[in-house]
Amino acid sequence: MPKPLLSLLLALCGAWLVSAFSAHLDPYYLDVLIGVGINIVLAVSLNLIAGHTGQFSLGHAGFMAIGAYAATAVSLFLGPLLIGDFPTPGGLAESTLFFAALVAGGAAAAVAGLFVGIPSLRLRGDYLALVTLGFGEIIRVLLQNFELLGGALGLNGIPPYTTPFWVIAAAALTVFVVGCLVNSTYGLGFRAVRDDEIAAAAAGLNPSRYKVVAFTVGTFFAGIAGALFGHFKLTITPAGFDFTRSIEIVVIVILGGLGNTLGVILAAVLLTLLPEFLRPVAEYRLVLYAALLIAIMLLRPQGLFNFSVRRPAAPRV
């Protein structure tokens, strides 16, 4: 059995074990664990776009929002029609419905990524960053004014389907898919486009094709992260997917090291746990958090967990 597939199966077994004993965990630690898992999905998926293909995206939270609202629409509006009132999570019907909601959320985000990617990924640097930033804000404003999905008040009463199993499984699957892509012939194309797009085109590659593939796959997993987030928090509002959320994901990727999947995972864990450790000094938490990030960027601009000799090319900004 290939090593990546074996690792995925072991991760799924571990996810089942953690979920089986989650009832004995303190709700606070459970909340932190699920937050870590969701951030890993978001960071690894953005790293495929920014780290492996060198495209600077500032709209990842917008795709997360699309996934959250699409998945919630499936479970909140279609669920009662298919399985009746929401029973206790864990049954076959509820698991099937949630799986369908996750796929719907990921697919909706991927379609939006494809819609944005085809015309805009011919752009580079500042122009692409502005396009993705603008798209993320457009999504937020549209959701804020779309009364069918709750408008500015968002959606409440979302069934609590997110469990440690789903989160850990989604994080493992994200790492598995991205790893398989990066280590395939597509990965060679990603790196060629990242390092020198003109040279890649001269060698016969189609840079737009590789960028669209990376963007679509990355946004698919951002949508899944949004679906997990919505079914854990049980309420979602457009304000929860603003520009600040996108910046948080970008910071994780840069801190972990562009193109370094393991480093990005460690950075996601660190930056999810760090605010919790700073709670005793809550009044200075944001100041300390920002100062630490500035120091790391000055001392380790290649990423805190990037120990490779060759520094990955940064996104063209």
Summarize the structure.
This protein is mainly α and 317 residues long.
Write the layout of secondary structure elements.
Blueprint: H1 3-20, H2 27-50, H3 60-83, H4 92-120, H5 126-144, E1 155-156, H6 164-182, H7 185-195, H8 197-202, H9 207-233, E2 235-236, H10 243-256, H11 261-277, H12 285-299
Antiparallel strand pairs: 1-2
Helix pairs in contact: 1-6, 2-6, 2-9, 2-10, 2-11, 3-4, 3-5, 3-9, 4-9, 6-9, 7-9, 10-11
Tag the structure with descriptive keywords:
mainly alpha, 1% strand, single chain, globular, 12 helices, 317 residues, two-stranded antiparallel sheet
Characterization of this structure:
70% of the residues lie in helices and 1% in strands. It has a two-stranded antiparallel ribbon. It contains twelve helices and two strands; from the N terminus they run αααααβααααβααα. It is globular. The protein is mainly alpha-helical and 317 residues long. The longest helix is centred in the middle third of the chain and has 29 residues, at 92-120. It has one domain. The termini are far apart. The protein has helices at residues 3-20, 27-50, 60-83, 92-120, 126-144, 164-182, 185-195, 197-202, 207-233, 243-256, 261-277, 285-299, and strands at residues 155-156, 235-236.
